[in-house]
Amino acid sequence: MTSHTASGPETAEENTYRELAQRYPQMKYQVARACAVAGYDKLYQELDVLPETHIAEEARECGSTAIYDQIMAAPVGKQSVGYATTPEFDDYGEETFGLWDDPGFEQRSIDITEDMSVDRNAVEATPLHPIDGVGSPLLYQRLPLDLPTIDEDVLIPISAYYGDIDRYERLRRPKMLPYELNCCVIGIYHNTMFAIWWSKQSMETKGICVIRAAINARFIMNNVLSRATTGDDKSDNPYLI
Question: Is 79 found in the same domain as 65?
Answer without folding.
Answer: no
